[in-house]
């Protein structure tokens, strides 16, 4: 077992004083000992994976908005084949434009 403890301070909800992580410090980075969870390299790797998922979701939604806007532009001046369908699409595109 390691003689060092993890250098991470853990803050509880609403607490004023954090406490030290109780796990053994098995990785040394930046002159400090860290557990596998709190090591700066592990944190940045997890954050990068998470941000890639978020960016993929944003790209997917942006593509969907662009597709719907293009569809609406293509339907400009065309009679509504089913009453209310084109109006609903226009309203949905307007809501999407507000979010962007």
Overview of the molecule:
The chain has 2 helices and 4 strands; from the N terminus they run ββββαα. The protein starts with 8 loop residues before the first strand and ends with a helix. It is mainly α and 100 residues long. A hairpin with an 8-residue loop joins strand 1 and strand 2 (19-20).
Topology as a string of helices (H) and strands (E): EEEEHH
Distance between the termini: 52 Å
Strand order, main sheet: write it out: 1-2
The helix count comes to 2
Strand count, sense and closure of the main sheet?
2 strands, antiparallel
Quote the beta fraction: 5-15%
Shape estimate: elongated
Sequence stretches where pLDDT stays below 50 over 5 or more residues: none
Q: What's the total count of β strands?
A: 4
Q: What's the helical proportion of residues?
A: 40-55%
Task: Give the helix/strand class.
Answer: mainly alpha
Summarize model confidence as the mean pLDDT: 85
Q: Any idea what the radius of gyration is? A: 25 Å
């Amino acid at each position: 077992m390691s003689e060092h403890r993890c250098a991470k301070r853990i803050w509880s909800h609403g607490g004023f004083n954090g406490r030290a992580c109780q796990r053994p410090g098995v990785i040394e980075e930046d002159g400090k000992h860290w557990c596998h969870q709190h090591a700066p390299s592990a944190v940045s790797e997890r954050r990068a994976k998470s941000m890639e998922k978020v960016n993929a979701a944003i790209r997917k939604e942006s593509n969907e908005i662009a597709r719907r806007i293009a569809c609406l532009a293509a339907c400009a001046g065309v009679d509504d084949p089913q009453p209310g369908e084109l109006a609903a699409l226009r309203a949905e595109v307007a809501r999407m434009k507000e979010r962007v």
